[in-house]
Amino acid sequence: METKFKNANLVIATLKYQPIGLGCMGMSFGLGPAGDKKEMISLIRSAVERGVTFFDTAEVYGPFINEELVGEALAPLRKEVVIATKFGFALDPNGGPAWIGLNSRLNT
Prior knowledge:
- Strands 1-2-3 form a 3-stranded parallel beta sheet, covered by helices on one side.
- The two termini are 25 Å apart.
- The chain is 21% helix and 18% strand.
- 18% of the residues are buried.
- It is α/β, with parallel strands linked by helices.
- The chain has helices at 37-49, 65-74; strands at residues 22-23, 54-58, 82-86, 89-91, 99-102.
């Protein structure tokens, strides 16, 4: 049985980043109460000033709240950093913080 997939265009680039990164999950999800948004943005930008160029987040952290936080913090520095995000979760259709399964379908 042959399966046909839509082609996705990928931009191939050389990623350059420091060997140490910053995992941002605990800033808004999962490890107690979320941090103050302004303080977390300051922390992320301070990490860049200290040489951190790799940041990790995921759509399920919040959901979406952590990605939004990291994106806002790094928007003015976007050309200097690499942001990794994990996706493929089937989120609660009622808007709850839980995920109910996996879904890696492209929504194009």
